[in-house]
Specification:
The structure is a homodimer of 378-residue chains. Chain A is built from ten helices and 15 strands. By secondary structure, chain A is α+β, with helices and mostly antiparallel strands. Chain A has two domains: 114 residues, PurM-like, N-terminal domain (60s Ribosomal Protein L30, Chain: A), CATH 3.30.1330.10; 180 residues, PurM-like C-terminal domain (Phosphoribosyl-aminoimidazole Synthetase, Chain A, domain 2, Alpha-Beta Complex). In chain A, strand 2 and strand 3 form a beta hairpin. In chain A, helix 3 packs parallel to helix 4 and helix 7 packs across helix 10. The radius of gyration of chain A is 20 Å and the shape is globular. Chain A starts with 24 loop residues before the first helix and ends in an 8-residue tail after the last strand. Chains A and B meet through helix 1, strand 3, strand 4, helix 4 and strand 5 of A and helix 1, strand 3, strand 4, helix 4 and strand 5 of B.
């Protein structure tokens, strides 16, 4: 389904790489670099309004502007290809999986927005269908609406509105392109967590993932093609592969808001999405991140690693492997951060610490080292 | 290319309706209604943060939240199918038309956001391609980036960032799904223009359109199929149909910002997009809108009306027919509003006035009447 020349199909049983799954980051990156440079050059426009950007937010997960009494944070995020799994599972099971897909889409935006210390306030829906008839499946449309509302309620945001275009000829027939934009504020301004405060000795707290979330789905879909029972392959008693893939992404804003109420200000946050644990290297400074304890790996990610014959390096460098979100806090706040997260309904653990030293991520239980060149986002 | 069963092809020379062009609003609307209801029910979530929505913004072109010192406005908007015209014209002419397409996309968001009185501050880009290779056409990608930046500069907004996913299987091969989200503030709060101030006697000022903008493109593309020379059909000396269609949508925020600096607060604004002049009925109140003077109709819209054999009622009820944006101001401010717009580079005219009476739009020079049932947005 990828539009570039298809890679040679992997032989059954052969390892499956992310390249084979059809996403070629090298082809996107030159445009990304050009866009980032052009975008950075527009920051001066804010001066005419008496405002300024928070420059450290360039290259971070949400863009931040100083509007005086507080900071304004905004973002737009795409679901990606997870909806294709929902479509196939609806065909196989006869019911809609779009309530979870709605939560996934909002999670992509909310979980990025909160990394900078923002309280999300408004979500806008972008639902671009391949044709008007997408909306005639009343159950599917209803679950999308209900799931979207439920996720907004969980995050304490207002669903402001959105767009529901029918884009025949642009969006593929029978498909939907889902995205969410989110606007929030950082208030008080001391909640800003762009990383200035990160210091050696800080603890790394990892919030639990529910499954694959919405990153790595191209690989997961490619793998489904190789399984004799496809998405219906049981990966645990009573749990099919497709169902496990569709576990909705947790919404982490209840945790970050609870931390604020508890008086804990993270020194930095990283949403673990594409590039897996390499996202722990996101902070622009030079630190060594030492991981001593690993979270439990969701069954679906264990299954993918095993079936795709991925090395630990590939798996942890691509997938979340049980860590959905990283919060870097003062060591003295570490255990309380875990407790606050648990009370907000999200399992967490103190996984390691920040140290002075070369920029690298050491995952000690697995003997893995990711160097400073493992993540190029800026 | 539409995914529902194709309508019977219109005989050459037969009138062409919007239904035949493949967009069936009736199929989308039940979902829209359900989504609007669910969205409205999330407003209460803002109370936990000490904020509240501005309820009158529900059903308007941008969503507004009262965050204390000012109002926050946000929106996400889709370009629609205009990129398909750019793709075909690139094939025919050998060069990229994406600089204008970028401006169109931003205009869709900015021109909606400013209707509520907001100053746009941040734009986020949503560029979802059918595959990684979309981005390898360096000229096309470069014009998209350059056009996006230029539009941000014109509007005085910061380009915050965005998403450039490759969505093979969801976005059609070789295509791109373009959208923009925009966040702004209404400051001072007295700039809020949700319509409370609209009264009989107010003037209706229309800002000039540059062409078809980004609404009515399904019809325009269908028409191209019927023309022997297609998009290369000359519609005026040296002007091909496709080129005329691709005239970028004006950015109206320089006008609304200039009005604010001039001390003119619109009583209401309507961005003339889908539903053409019926959008003049957007205000929820009961007023009669009497139009006595018409703006010049861009050549491309004259051509479409003629070739598609559209009645004036169809043309003015579907297309902008030269009016890109309506500003309702106190009669005493009308001429000055026109002058401020002209100084900001946008032609304008005082086209008519608001009167007490049944909700209807009277376009006197054409003898047209659109009643209260002509526009159903809420």
């Amino acid at each position: 389904m990828d539009s570039r020349p298809s890679p040679a199909p992997a032989a059954p049983g052969a390892p499956l790489s992310y390249e084979q799954s059809g996403v070629v980051y090298e082809l996107i990156d030159p445009l990304k670099v050009a866009a980032q440079r052009a975008a950075a050059a527009t920051a001066v426009n804010l001066a005419a309004h008496g405002f300024s950007e928070v420059k450290a937010s360039r290259g971070e997960s949400a863009y931040v502007v100083d509007v005086g009494p507080f900071y304004l944070a905004s973002i737009v995020e795409c679901l990606g290809s997870k909806a294709l799994v929902a479509d196939e599972m609806q065909r196989l099971t006869g019911h809609s999986w779009y309530a979870g897909i709605a939560q996934d889409t909002i999670a992509m935006a909310i979980n990025d927005l909160v990394t900078v210390g923002a309280t999300p306030l408004v979500v806008q829906a972008y639902w671009a269908a391949g044709g008007s008839e997408w909306f005639t499946d009343a159950e599917r449309a209803g679950t999308l609406v209900a799931g979207w509302k439920a996720a907004c309620d969980t995050c304490g945001v207002a669903w402001g509105g959105g767009e529901t275009p029918a884009l025949a000829g642009i969006v593929a027939e029978g498909r939907i392109d889902l995205a969410a934009s989110c606007t929030g504020i950082v208030s008080p301004k001391t909640r800003l967590s762009l990383g200035d405060a990160l210091v050696p000795g800080d603890a790394i707290v990892l919030l639990a993932a529910s499954g694959i979330h919405a990153n790595g789905l191209s690989l997961a879909r490619k793998l489904a093609e190789r399984l004799p029972q496809g998405y219906l392959t049981p990966i645990a008693p009573g749990l099919a592969y497709g169902e496990a893939l569709l576990a909705p992404t947790p919404l982490y804003s209840p945790v970050t808001e609870a931390l604020a109420r508890a008086g804990i200000t993270p020194h930095y946050c990283a949403n673990i999405t594409g590039h897996g644990w390499r996202k722990l290297l996101r902070h622009p400074g030079s630190f060594t991140y030492r991981i001593e304890r690993l979270p439990e790996v969701p069954a679906v990610l264990q299954f993918i690693q095993q079936q795709a014959q991925m090395s630990d390096e590939d798996a942890y460098g691509t997938l979340n492997m049980g860590a959905g979100f990283a919060i870097f806090v003062a060591a003295a706040d570490a255990e309380r951060t875990v407790e606050v997260a648990r009370q907000a309904g999200v399992a967490a653990l103190v996984a390691g610490r920040v140290e002075a030293g070369a920029k690298q991520l050491l995952i000690e239980p697995l003997g893995l080292v990711f160097g400073s060149d493992a993540l190029q986002l800026r």
